[in-house]
Specification:
heterodimer; A: 213 residues; alpha+beta; Alpha-Beta Plaits; 2 domains; five-stranded antiparallel sheet; four-stranded antiparallel sheet; 9 strands; globular; B: 59 residues; mainly alpha; elongated; disordered N terminus
């Protein structure tokens, strides 16, 4: 039977990850999965339930969260995946030990240039350059305050209608540094130099990007 | 998401979508959701979120 894989952890002797999940072990690793009998639906209720399950597991184990919808044809195929990618998975787990992810969104306070009239290619390029510069400023603004309390960070452009100069960053933060990180976030938000919002702690979805099984 | 406040609920929804549908370990060829499904749910949620935005900021 097909299984939906939620996360991968080490196969250590600690308590089971979550009672309702099936544990599929191989090569010193453990996949936390659930049999699926019908096609998966990507509605909000399903996504929230998925996230809650992953967070339950995260509370007790270092994990590599899977992208939503990782359905594998059977248990043997899961074991084969764990075995063939064991080195990368073990290295990633070691890298993520004792850390959580925070998401930070920032929008530049300077007036958004808006969509330039298509009449001029030069005006278009100029507007894009200004946005790029604004995003660099945002990145530096965030990093100046937050970088010191984070283990790693990734940042990407996150333009939305009316707010082209926005970035979305993810910070990997040690458990011990969480209060300091949140304090600095609050400080940044209070300064109100740019529009800022944040969420977390999350499972480290943004720090397993290079892993394809 | 224990630290998320009510005021951040809309942000948290977008963040949830971005992470679950674009982050995480990918098993090659095993994602069974078709792209249209994902686009639809993302669009739905973004519409809901922008509606919340408008409600939360009365003129």
């Amino acid at each position: 039977m097909s299984v939906l894989v939620y996360a991968i952890s080490r196969d250590d002797a600690r308590a089971p990850a979550a009672a309702e999940l099936q544990e599929i072990c191989a090569a010193g690793l453990r996949a936390l999965a659930e049999p699926v009998r019908e096609p998966l639906r990507a509605d909000l209720a399903q996504l929230v339930r998925y996230e809650e399950t992953v967070e339950t597991v995260m509370a007790h184990h270092t994990i590599l969260p899977m992208r939503f919808g990782s359905v594998v044809e059977d248990e043997n195929r899961v074991r084969a995946l764990l075995t063939s990618r064991r080195r990368e998975f073990a290295a990633a787990l070691a890298h993520l030990d004792g850390a959580v992810e925070f998401g930070v969104q920032a929008t530049h306070a300077a007036a958004a240039p808006g969509e330039p009239a298509a009449a001029s290619g030069a005006a278009y390029l100029h507007a894009r350059l200004i946005e790029q510069q604004a995003r660099r400023e945002l990145r530096d603004w965030l990093d100046d305050t937050l970088r010191e309390t984070a283990r790693e960070r990734v940042v990407r452009a996150a333009p939305s209608p009316g707010h082209p100069a926005s970035v979305s960053a993810a910070y990997l933060v040690d458990h011990g540094q969480e209060p300091a990180f949140v304090e600095r976030l609050t400080e940044l938000a209070d300064r109100a130099e740019h529009r800022l919002s944040w969420s977390g702690p999350w499972p480290p979805y943004s720090f397993v990007g290079g892993l394809e099984a | 998401m224990s630290a998320v406040t009510v005021a951040d609920r809309d942000v948290a929804l977008i963040d949830l979508l971005d992470r679950l549908l674009q982050g995480g370990v990918v098993i090659q060829g095993q994602i069974t959701l078709c792209a249209a499904d994902i686009d639809l749910v993302a669009l739905d949620l973004r519409v809901v979120v922008s509606a919340i935005d408008r409600l939360a900021a009365p003129k």
